[in-house]
Amino acid sequence: MENSGRTASGDDVIARTGALLELDLLDCPICRHPLASPIYQCVEGHIICSSCRTMNERCPSCFSFIGNTRSRIMERLVETVFFPCRNAKHGCTEKLSRGKELVDHEKECDGFVCHCPVPFCDYAGFDKNLYDHFTVSHKANYSSSFRTGQYVDVDVPVHMKETMLILQEHNYGPLVILQAFKGPDGLYVTANLLAAPFAPRGWKFGYDLICWRGDVEFTDTIDEMNRIQRVSFKTPGVKSMFIAYPFLDESLVVKMEIRIRELRYEDEEEDDDGEEDEE
Ligand SMILES: [Zn+2]
Ligand SMILES: [Zn+2]
Ligand SMILES: [Zn+2]
Ligand SMILES: [Zn+2]
After folding, report:
1. Keywords for this entry (predicted)?
2. Residue 43: which CATH number?
3. How far does the centroid of ligand 3 lie from the alpha carbon of residue 73, in Å?
């Protein structure tokens, strides 16, 4: 890469660029956090970040006094080195100078990385890549298909402490994870959205879940499913359906019906409660 610029006399110059092989050099040698201006140095030239300097009167490397001497060359160096986003391995091409910009970008970028829900598969990638990976590698063995807006039967195994079913919309719609957990008093059932790469972030998905135990109907309606980046096996809180143990008979599966609904944010203004736009 070449950076062009101009000298004081107006001539075009091409700044020379190269590679820095030891990126650790750009970390504070004391706390190992990325260096950022202001960077200080002891009289022997050892560098130290500003937060380590406030905690150390003397240089941790040579015990000589640390004053207010800044390491201008390190400050300059740190500003001119561009780092790849930590999600480069997932396909992010952003390169930013280290500091707030990179931190902010990585925070946002991390929000798109999803982990494969299949047990023992450690694939992680941006939601689109995860979706493709799941479709190619696991779809045949691990997923049940559904159509948005239509009820589909699901058999939820209840003989284990926790179970997970992966539901995939038949036409590139979202991947939904349906989970059942055995709590102290009963079964909790919940569904979360893992990846919906073909639905803009502004869209939300809700669901209706129904099951019958004898004459009793259990239902759960969720207007907006949580978006998750990895499957968690923590017992869910509010957004879950609860079936007390007396209602579970000896069967190993509970037959349920689930309907995933797609709702765009702009539809929210409507006065009616949306009963007509289904089916
Ligand atoms: Zn430090
Ligand atoms: Zn020193
Ligand atoms: Zn990124
Ligand atoms: Zn996988």
Report:
1. Metal-binding, Transferase, Ubl conjugation pathway, Zinc, Zinc-finger
2. 3.30.40.10
3. 28
